[in-house]
Automatic annotation (TrEMBL):
Pathway: Quinol/quinone metabolism; 1,4-dihydroxy-2-naphthoate biosynthesis; 1,4-dihydroxy-2-naphthoate from chorismate: step 1/7; Quinol/quinone metabolism; menaquinone biosynthesis. It comes from Caldalkalibacillus thermarum (strain TA2.A1). It comes from the Bacteria. This is Isochorismate synthase MenF. The active site is at 224 (proton acceptor), 273 (proton donor). Residues 203-456 form the Chorismate-utilising enzyme C-terminal domain. Belongs to the isochorismate synthase family. The gene is menF. GO terms for biological process: menaquinone biosynthetic process; salicylic acid biosynthetic process. GO terms for molecular function: isochorismate synthase activity; magnesium ion binding. Transmembrane segments: none annotated. Keywords: Isomerase, Magnesium, Menaquinone biosynthesis, Metal-binding.
Length: 467
């Protein structure tokens, strides 16, 4: 069986070599089904070779996981035209691709993993220097776990003068070593509680910005502005992304768990908020806004859910998001559907108001067009969008970087999914910067909003070891 596979691959490589002689550089992508592997062990085991070039992405309940390692091709943009820039480069790249695959499984073969910053017009701080307005990689190795099956894609960008068989051979050898190391890997069972120093800059300034925004909303131009703040955390020992991810995937089961390592930084988190998912022409977006804590008992938890569903301030906060997303998708879809009433979405520490919005994309509308049209929704920016983002830029004394921004993946057929990177932390060695925001509306109370951000910091503080 294996022999036969290798022969087929050999023929493919020979054919490719011939084809390349007469044409331009191109992308080679080889997909094989492999024995089931634990994706996070694969991520962890790869640290030795791919430190600073690893990406992890998993949907709630681990139904679909991608692990990208290394860079076959990088696509970046620091311009306002970032969505178009990525689209153009991606189209160009896949126009000249040779794919060898065992069956077409979504999320395998050549695909881009990465994301965008929140606001390309905000001057970027040194904290986020590795995270551009748009940064994507086509990974050298991609592990896809879908419906309990594992697939490994090897991607290589080949020039006509390259020795293709040698290059493929090298990658195959590294693949075998990665798999062996992955199977030997195990996570430290107990995470020892560590001492974290938590520092909260500019608390008073943040509270006065909230007051300021409430006053502006009452004057009538703005309806909602999402204001965020950051906290700085320092640990005695270096943070390890794989340990944080291992905790998040066990505890935050209703969230997307992600890590994006660029150089010495890792941006990690567990977000419950999908921005947009596209499969063929079917699209699914999520309105998530309005928050309350979880109860200690089942009764208290239900009482809190009920209170949230009936709370006028939270309903307004939520409704502004639903209206905007329905309208934005209305322009890009032939049909848009959403229930009239929100339901409750629970994570470990927080419950939210939740409304799914479904649509059928018009023929020429791509996933990135939709991301561009939606970002930032009033769940992360505000309403009206331009004015709200301008106020965020002026009032928040920090650079959000990729916090609250779209991160995700897209494939060559235009399928993919983007979430907004909240409940997240940017880590580097022993330092971490955490972010949390909340939707300010006319009836907001500054102190309650502050407490809401405290609650939203909890998931990441726990994940970093500060139980
Ligand atoms: C901005 C954040 O969360 C957003 C704000 C919410 C709110 O204000 O109720 C709820 C969910 C998110 O859309 C965050 O977690 O940092
Ligand atoms: Mg809120």
């Amino acid at each position: 069986m294996i022999r036969q596979q290798l022969d087929i691959l050999d023929d493919f490589v020979q054919g490719m070599q011939q084809a390349l002689k007469s044409c331009r550089p191109g992308l080679v992508s080889l997909v094989t089904r492999i024995q089931p592997l634990d994706p996070l062990s694969f991520y962890a085991a790869a640290g030795q070779w791919f430190h600073g070039q690893r990406l992890y992405w998993s949907t709630p309940d681990h139904e679909f996981t991608l692990v990208g390692l290394g860079t076959a091709v990088k696509i970046e943009s620091d311009q306002d035209t970032r969505f178009d820039d990525v689209t153009k480069e991606w189209k160009h790249l896949i126009a000249n691709t040779h794919i060898h695959t065992e069956g077409e499984v979504m999320g395998t073969g050549p695909l881009l993993l990465g994301g965008f910053s929140f606001d390309p017009q905000k001057p970027s701080s040194s904290l986020w220097q590795n995270y551009k307005a748009a940064s994507f990689i086509l990974p050298q190795f991609l592990l896809t776990q879908s419906k309990n099956q594992s697939y490994l894609t090897i991607n290589a960008y080949i020039h006509p003068e390259d020795d293709l068989p040698e290059k493929i051979d090298q990658l195959n050898r590294l693949k075998e070593r990665l798999i062996t190391r992955c199977m030997d890997f195990s996570f430290a069972q107990e995470v020892h509680p560590i001492t974290l120093n938590v520092f909260e800059p500019a608390r008073e300034e943040w509270l006065s910005s909230v007051k300021q925004v409430i006053a502006e909303i009452q004057q009538g131009v703005l309806q909602k502005v999402v204001l965020a703040r950051r906290v700085e955390v320092e640990s005695e020992t270096p943070f390890r992304p794989e340990q944080i991810l291992n905790y998040l995937r066990q505890v935050q089961t209703s969230s997307y768990v992600f890590s994006i390592e660029w150089g010495e930084n890792a941006f990690v988190g567990a977000t419950p908020e999908r921005l947009i998912k596209k499969e063929g022409s079917r699209v699914l977006s999520t309105c998530l806004a309005g928050s309350i804590k979880r109860g200690q008992t089942l009764e208290e938890d239900l009482a809190l859910s009920k209170a949230l569903l009936q709370d006028p301030k939270n309903r307004v906060e939520h409704e502004i998001v639903v209206r905007m997303i329905k309208q934005a998708l209305g322009d890009l879809c032939t049909r848009v559907e959403a229930p009239d009433q929100p339901i409750i979405y629970k994570t470990k520490q927080i419950q939210h108001l939740y409304t799914p919005v479904r649509g059928l994309a018009k023929d020429n509308i791509s996933l990135l067009k939709m991301v561009e049209a939606l970002h930032p929704t009033p769940a992360l920016g505000g309403y009206p969008r331009e004015e709200a983002v301008r106020r965020i830029r002026e009032l928040e004394g920090m650079d959000r970087g990729w916090y609250a921004a779209p991160i995700g993946w897209l494939d060559r057929q235009g399928n993919g999914e983007f979430v907004v990177a909240i409940r997240s932390a940017l880590i580097r060695h022993r330092q971490a910067t955490l972010f949390a925001g909340c939707g300010i509306v006319e009836d907001s109370d500054p102190q309650s909003e502050y407490e809401e951000t405290q609650m939203k910091l909890k998931p990441m503080l726990s994940a970093l070891g500060g139980h």
